[in-house]
Amino acid sequence: MTDAQEHEEATMSNTLYDRIGGEAAVNAAVDIFYRKVLNDYRINRFFDNVDMEKQAAKQKAFLTMAFGGPHNYTGEDMRKGHARLVKMGLDNSHFDAVVENLGATLEELNVPQELIAEVVAICETTRNDVLGR
Amino acid sequence: MFYVEHYGVSFNGSIMYKLTIEEQTYTCQPDETVLDTLLREEVNISYACKKGTCHSCMVRSLDTIPPAAAQVGLKNTLKNHQHFLACLCHPEQDMVIKLPDASEFYTEGTVVVNEMLNRNTLLLIIAFKDAFEFNAGQFVNLQRADGLTRSYSIANTPQESNTLEFHIRRLPHGKFSAWLHDDIKVGDTIAVSEARGHCFYLPERREQGILLIGTGTGLAPLAGILTDALAHGHTGDIYLFHGSREVEDLYRIDEMRELAKQHSNFHYVPCLSGSHVPEGFMQGRANDVALATMADLKGWRVFLCGHPDMVNQAKRMTFLKGAASADIYADAFLVTPTG
Question: A33 to chain B nearest CA, in Å?
Fold first, then answer.
């Protein structure tokens, strides 16, 4: 991730995914992020009874998307994937908490604020689908 | 057209590779993934996301090393055994593939030891004519002549002659365990499947700490992993927390204590969750004692075997204590009353 910072100047024209550090960044972030989510009393009940291994793979796919990387999530995938959670009461406050944990993860990894803002903006585009609206 | 087929080259000149599954051969068209080919050929394969996330379409290459891109995100032990995701695999050569639900190959073995390890756990050792291929910590299916089949973990290591060792707990109303306990004698034969599972030791990062937590016969795979790690000269600390309710349901206590004397990096902690706790044992469930003992699991490799509730809880707790998700290996035992 520090590499990403050092080379930032030279690679401003690259995609967000490249600038943030690509797959290496996803790998560096995934456990830190998921640990924060599981420790967050506001949202961890949504992760009870999920298989941790499968969940870790899903978190990687999510981070790849949030970092502007290659993915083929559709809005429909997002709706289907979260429908069960919406029934459990998933709302804006929980969505905000997840984004907050992601931001804190990236700060911990010394990702520059302007890149974090771009990540947050990508997350924001999924809000209505995730919340089934 | 048959020339094209014969040389395995498409009209635009790209090479087409053959996929062989059991007796059938399929041709992977240019730009197709293995999953695309199998679905087009109407092969019955489970899949869901088609983008490497859900791992539903994981299959195994029996001959060649799969392309690295098809193994992204898989555990090291799965990669080591050439598992890959069909949806991410663009073949780079012909491949022989095994589907996860493919019919299993059984080998006949002969019972050479059956004796009790404690009041309800049977030690069963089965010998084979030829070497049996497995990693310590994997499991096999044992099958009775009438087809009744159950999974059991292997407790020994491949270095020890052509035998497999099992610890069989007698389950209430368990048909299979009752058969093994009551009817099987030395000299009887049993059908044994190929070894399965990805909860095993890989001889890499030998200085890494290893945490083993098991309940009941969860000791079986852990004992195999432990023996394997020590045999490979693992230098990092190895902690084994073995738990049950009462001391009479633990086993191999003296052997483990002896092993701990011989290896300064091995630490054995027997745990009892019941009210009577003699000296030399820790009070509490094995996973609780382990988590209270280990301050920080960052960088540790973790193996969890036993009751599904314990395994699921310990997976999460060891992860929250710092173990990387890729370093947590688990084997949850199904404890069906019909077992």
Answer: 11
